[in-house]
Every structure is written in C-alpha cells, then in structure tokens.
C-alpha cells in the first residue's frame, strides 16, 4: 500500500514552482501499544465528549474551538476563521531564505518529513530546487501550514528527494539559564580529563542506528509472549546505583572495565591507582558500547507479538 501524504501543495523558489507531497519520515506504529480496560469486565474503556454543565454527550458537529478568557468565559473561533489566518501559506511552501546547517540550534528541531514531487509533472522544477540547495550546501527555510497552524520548515537534500524538518518558534524554546544557573563551577584537573579521554577513545566508533536496540520494547514483547503462552512472569532485580567515593579511582576502574589497563592511562607518577578488587563494580554509570554482531543478534526476539487481536 502506497504511503499517504500528510500534506499536498506547492514548493516555490522565487518564480520556480512545483507540486509536492509531504510524508512523515518517522513512525511509532510498530511500537507496542495498550488499550485501557475495565478490570472487572475486561471490556475496553470508551471516552465520551460531554457538556461540562449538563453532562449530556455532544455530537462532533456541535463541537467548536474556544479560547479561555477566564473561568466561565470563552471566545468561540470557527474552523473557517482559523483557515483564513494563514490563508497565504496554506497550500504553498515559500522558501524565504537559505542558511548554514550549523546555524540551526538542535533545540529548534521538531520532526522530519520527506518531500517529493506530486504527480508526473514538476520533477524538473523539483530537481532544480533540490540541486541548487545541494550545490550551495545550504538549508532552505520556508513556511508550511499543517493542521491549521503555520510551521517553520527547514529543507535539505536527501538522496533524490528533500527532507523537511519542522522547527519550533523562539517562544517554544525554554532558556537554559533557569536550569543551569545552579550548577556549581568545578575545576576539572588534567589527570581527570586524561583518564576520561582514554575512556572516550576506547569507546570511539561511528553512529550506526541498526546496532541500537530498544530494550524496553524488547522487554514488552517478551512479557506479552510469556502471558500469551501462559508462562509465569517474574520481576527482575533492578541494578543498584552506587555513590562515587573517589572520582579518580572510579575513572581508573572504568578504564580497566573497558578492556584497558589502569597503568596505561596518563597520570602523575607519584600517584598510584588503588588496587582493583575482583568483581567490584565501577563507581561511574557504564556507557553501553558497540556489541558484537552475534551477541546483538542473539538478543533480538525471534518473533514479535501480534499487534492486533484476532
């Protein structure tokens, strides 16, 4: 079944225009999801839209949007009025400017979409816009209206198409000052940095999404499979966190745990690492590294539970 576009309209760069379609680039449909049930009957819970004062159920065609002014006062806004607010950009992604990718703060990124030509016409114009952005090594910034709200969208080439990433507005991004102001100024010694760099070098690799496993999703699938087969479900022991008593000692033990020798890490000659007791846990939280292919494959479930009940 062909994917369904979230939005169809036109992409315009000055006088160059082409029909395009916008598709979501990510999906959560494969995740395990649950329904709410009545514990006594096993039936699904149904939510009804009711009038807050009368308690009577309200039909969808009688429901409108309203902006709350005070406790009992609302300003009613119709669908047509909302559409008129962003009428100019409702069906067109107008490219306003081009910026360097490095200038876009990651906090402003929301979610990605795929942008393709819509239909048999417009492929030439689409290719011109795509290759111009690619040649200039820039990101195109435009506006698009989705679900009656105008969004900023950043466009960049991806293979034969374009990837469009919705961006947040400045008022949606919180200032970091209110969170970081209370962080203490700590002087980090060269010895600590050298030991930490050694750990980083041991774990250096390349970003390969396929090697990461959603362990919670795997555990959910295992739980459902056990319950479906009538097998007992036992709670697993949770790992206990430990306090860092000596940061230098913890760094050295971390190096030893990752396969290196504590004596190989750069440090002052006058200081000797504490003796590592066999079986003793490290002081720092372990960072998951790349697992061998065989081990990773062994952990993957043989089959997923059925997503829909028969």
Explain this structure:
This protein is an alpha+beta fold and 310 residues long. It has 7 helices and 9 strands; from the N terminus they run ββββαββαβββααααα. It has helices at residues 79-85, 123-136, 177-180, 190-203, 215-228, 247-257, 293-299, and strands at 7-13, 16-24, 65-70, 73-77, 92-99, 109-117, 139-146, 149-158, 161-167. The strands form 2 sheets. It has a 7-stranded mixed barrel with strand order 1-2-6-9-8-7-5. It has a two-stranded antiparallel sheet with strand order 3-4. The longest helix is centred in the middle third of the chain and has 14 residues, at 123-136. It is extended, with a radius of gyration of 28 Å.
Query: How would you classify the helix and strand content by structural class?
Result: alpha+beta
List SSEs in N-to-C order: EEEEHEEHEEEHHHHH
Work out the strand percent: 15-25%
Helix content: 10-25%
Task: Report the end-to-end length measured between terminal Cα atoms.
Answer: 22 Å
Number of helices: 7
Largest sheet: 7 strands, mixed, barrel
Shape: extended
Radius of gyration: 28 Å
List low-confidence stretches. Answer: 260-302
| Number of E strands | 9
Rounded mean pLDDT is 81
Side by side, the strands of the main sheet go: 1-2-6-9-8-7-5
């Amino acid at each position: 079944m062909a994917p369904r576009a979230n939005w169809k309209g036109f992409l315009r760069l000055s006088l160059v225009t082409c029909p395009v379609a916008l598709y979501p680039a990510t999906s959560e449909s494969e995740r395990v999801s649950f329904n709410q049930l009545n514990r006594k009957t096993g039936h699904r819970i149904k939510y009804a839209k009711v009038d807050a004062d009368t308690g009577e159920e309200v039909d969808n065609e009688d429901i409108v949007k309203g902006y709350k002014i005070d406790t009992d006062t609302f300003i009613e806004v119709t669908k047509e009025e909302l559409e008129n607010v962003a009428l100019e950009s409702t069906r067109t992604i107008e490219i306003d400017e081009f910026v360097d990718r490095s200038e876009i703060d990651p906090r402003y990124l929301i979610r990605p979409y795929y942008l393709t030509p819509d239909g048999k016409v417009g492929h030439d114009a689409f290719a011109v816009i795509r290759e111009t952005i690619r040649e200039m090594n820039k990101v195109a910034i435009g506006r698009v209206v989705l679900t009656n709200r105008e969004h900023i969208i950043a466009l960049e080439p991806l293979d034969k198409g374009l990837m469009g990433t919705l961006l947040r507005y400045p008022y949606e991004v919180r200032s970091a000052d209110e969170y970081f102001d209370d962080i203490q100024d700590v002087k980090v010694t060269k010895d600590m940095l050298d030991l930490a760099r050694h750990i980083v070098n041991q774990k250096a690799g390349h970003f390969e999404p396929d090697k990461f496993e959603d362990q919670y999703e795997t555990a959910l699938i295992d739980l459902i499979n056990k319950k479906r087969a009538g097998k007992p479900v036992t709670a697993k022991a949770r790992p206990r966190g430990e306090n860092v008593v000596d940061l230098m000692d913890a760094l050295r033990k971390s190096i030893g745990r990752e396969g290196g020798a504590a004596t190989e890490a750069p440090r002052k000659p006058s200081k000797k690492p504490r003796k590592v007791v066999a079986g003793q846990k490290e002081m720092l939280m372990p960072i998951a590294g790349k697992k061998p292919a065989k081990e990773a494959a062994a952990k993957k479930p043989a089959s997923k539970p059925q997503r829909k009940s028969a």
